[in-house]
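Duplicate of earlier report; Cation diffusion facilitator family transporter input re-posted below.
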Amino acid sequence: MDRTQKAALASAGIGLVVLALKFGAYWLTGSLALYSDALESIINVAAAAAAFIALRVAAKPADGDHPYGHHKAEYFSAVIEGVLVVGAAILILREAYFGFFNQAPLEAPLLGLVVNALATVVNAGWAWALLRWGRQWRSPALKADGQHVLADVWTSAGILVGVALVIATGWLVLDPLIAALVALNVLWSGWAMIRDSVSSLMDASARPETLAEIKQIIATQSEGAHEAHDVRTRQVGSVVFIDFHLVVPGSMSVKESHAICDRIEQALKARIAGAMVTIHVEPEEKAKQKGVPVLLVM
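Output:
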């Protein structure tokens, strides 16, 4: 079990603890807003479990049926999590709607606020850790899980404000109103997760700054060649697939051109984490004069 899988498994465990605290807060107060917060946390646990399964699948080595590996399993998990976040927002909106017509006073509101605040602090710390690890380890599943938990933090913060206002003003209508407003924010977060993951499933290219670095490496490591063109990239989880055409003199031997390719590949793998490089060697008459020029390093 690698570090990303351990993080996803720990996320499910922390989600269960937070879920218990939030349902405890609802049980103490009877607040519709706190009940909606607890509903959203059920989705957190399910999403963490989905992320763990996806990471297990993504870690499998390439095989005959999947020669490029199983990395895209992480994006399927991220899409599922986005759908679950949207579902949670709809559930909260539903409860808020009925809450407008069934307003009831809160019981033990201060103690409920303290318990819910504790759950929110735990969630905030865990969301920060997941997002940090997701960026460092280039794990879409962990990033999506972190975004999901962070959405839950915003939900809880808004609901805590709403319940505090109910206590301070006695306006019971604020309870479902705040829940509805926060649900809209959660809905947007879920849509963003789905949009980004679907883009990656469609083989979106690496980020512009990564592509610029790749071209710079090719330009400075291609001494002996004429140019590189048709540079293409795609980001799949923690792996960056890179392929391009390298134009060399027609008189150059296979051994010499292969040595240039090895030099470029080693440099790319040293600078671009998870790089998988494919180079197609072509003779000089295939030059396009609009590719990546070779820079002579003195």
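The mean pLDDT is 81.

Merging into the original ticket.
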